[in-house]
Design brief:
It comes from Proteiniclasticum aestuarii. It is a single chain. The chain has a single domain (2-163), classed as Gcn5-related N-acetyltransferase (GNAT) (Aminopeptidase, 3-Layer(aba) Sandwich), CATH 3.40.630.30. The protein is 33% helix and 30% strand. It has 5 helices and 10 strands. The strands form 2 sheets. Strands 1, 2, 3, 4, 5, 6, 7 and 8 form an 8-stranded mixed β-sheet that branches. A hairpin with a 5-residue loop joins strand 2 (57-62) and strand 3 (68-75). The protein is globular and about 35 Å long. The termini are far apart.
Length: 164
């Protein structure tokens, strides 16, 4: 199983996977307007611009047949997207994608002291297993329900002093 940052040429495939999984799993929790808002937010040109400006990590994991199985999108300490093909759920793809991103933070490649995410209702238990805590009540913005969650980190500097 390979995990890596996706190239510009792979962005459209990643967005297609996100759309398919969203429609299969999360759209039923949203209002009809919320579904439209989410789908409208997935513009390839926007993702490409953010990746080129090095403001956004778009990573993918691939299955045994070298098929894109999951996608993670993050900007700094905000985990914006984590989607795994429905037929690949429960097989560790999401966990490995998350750990790929977390390793970037722990290595100092991404600078932040915590990760925040707006979890879909169905993903709260996954994030709790990854060490996240719920930080507020369930909310709905633009017809999309979510639960705000965070995970904090401590980093040691070169002198062994822990910084949070």
């Amino acid at each position: 199983m390979e995990i890596r940052e996706l190239s510009i040429s792979e962005v459209e495939d990643a967005l297609l996977l996100i759309k398919e999984v969203f429609l299969d799993t999360e759209a039923k929790e949203c209002t009809p307007g919320g579904v439209g808002v989410f789908l409208d937010s997935l513009k390839g040109s926007d993702f490409i611009a953010m990746i080129r400006e090095e403001q956004y990590i778009l990573a993918g994991t691939f299955d045994e047949e070298d098929r894109l199985a999951g996608v993670l999108g993050a900007r700094g300490g905000f985990l914006a997207l984590l989607f795994v093909r429905v037929d690949h759920m429960g097989r560790g793809y999401g966990k490995r994608l998350y750990r790929f991103y977390e390793d970037r933070i722990l290595s100092g490649e991404v600078t932040c002291s915590k990760i925040s995410t707006n979890s879909s209702l169905g993903a709260v238990s996954f994030y709790e297993k990854m060490g996240f805590c719920i930080t507020g009540e369930q909310k709905m913005i633009h017809g999309i329900p979510f639960v705000p969650m965070e995970k904090g980190f401590s980093h040691e500097d070169k002198f062994g002093i822990v910084k949070t």
